[in-house]
Structures are given as C-alpha cells and as structure tokens.
Amino acid sequence: INAEYMGLSEHGVTPVDSKKQQASRNKQTLGKPFHRMGLLVPYDKKTEVGYRDLGMTPQQFRTLIEKIVKGKANESEKTEFSTLLTFADIANDECDFGHGLEIGLDLFCFAGSDSSCELFGNCLRLLDTAYMLLNRSLFRSIVSDHMAARGRKSWAQPME
Question: Which of 123, 125, 136, 156 lies deepest, with the highest CB count within 10 Å?
C-alpha cells in the first residue's frame, strides 16, 4: 500500500502488515461466528466470565437457522432455537456478553429485509443488548441504522 499516494501519511496513518495484525488479533478472539473473525470481548480466563460456547458447532447452528428462515423447522428445532435465545439472555445476566453477541452476529448474517421475520427482531434485540452491555454505543447505532435500512425498498427511500 502506498500510504503517501492515498493521502494517508498526512494523517499519521502508516501501512501495516495485515497478516501480522490478523495473527495477533486471532490469538485474542473467542467463539466462531459465521463471519470467521472471532469475537473480541472482555474475558477472564480464571473465572471463565465473558463468553460461553453456544453448545453446538457453527455448522449445526447455521443449519438450524436455515431451517427456521425457510420455514422448514419442526417443533423440536423451533424449541431448540427458542432455548438458545433464552440462554443468551441468561448469559447476559451472568456477564457472559460474548454469547449473545455471537448469536446476534450470526443472526445478522441471515436476517433479511423483512422486518417481520423472526430473525430480524431477535438479531436487533441481541445485538442492541450485547453492545449496550459491552459499552459499544457506536455499534448499537450502526446496527440499528443498518437494520432499519434493510427494510427499505431502495436506498433512495428515506429511513423512518
């Protein structure tokens, strides 16, 4: 990257070795969200507070969500999904904020533009709560605005 050409050097931005930076970040991440970047949340290794595992593999969770989105989930799978959402709320109460964040981000990958979709509302609720509890108010605003924009028919249509 030619920082000078891009006008970045005048703002104190210098090129970095992104592979080194990514390797360093990967050592700190938790979970396996669908976006594959991991989660960076406060985590105490001694007390194991800050993150808890979903209790299923990412592929199992993806399959469950796909069935729900397509309306092909049976009662047992709907109950399993509902239970996961309940566990996210319990995890938040117990300061394991990464759990709800991971589920919320995974739902974000699937929640479409239909604001009546079950995933849409759960995604927004989980991410809003996680970002509030993690004191990441800017992310709360971004997700809220983004989800509102998903419901628009065109980008020229103003947001409500």
Answer: 123
Local structure of 30: helix, strand or coil: strand
User: What tokens appear for 73 in the block?
Assistant: 């989930």
Contact 107, 66 (CB under 8 A): no
The one-digit pLDDT tens for each residue of the chain (160 residues) are: 444 445 555 666 565 667 777 788 778 778 888 777 778 888 888 998 988 888 999 899 999 998 988 889 999 999 999 999 999 999 999 999 999 999 999 998 876 655 456 788 888 899 999 999 999 989 888 888 888 777 655 544 454 5
Contact 143, 158 (CB under 8 A): no
pTM value is 0.77
Q: Write out the two tokens for 3.
A: 């920082």
Cα separation, 1 vs 12, in Å, equals 14
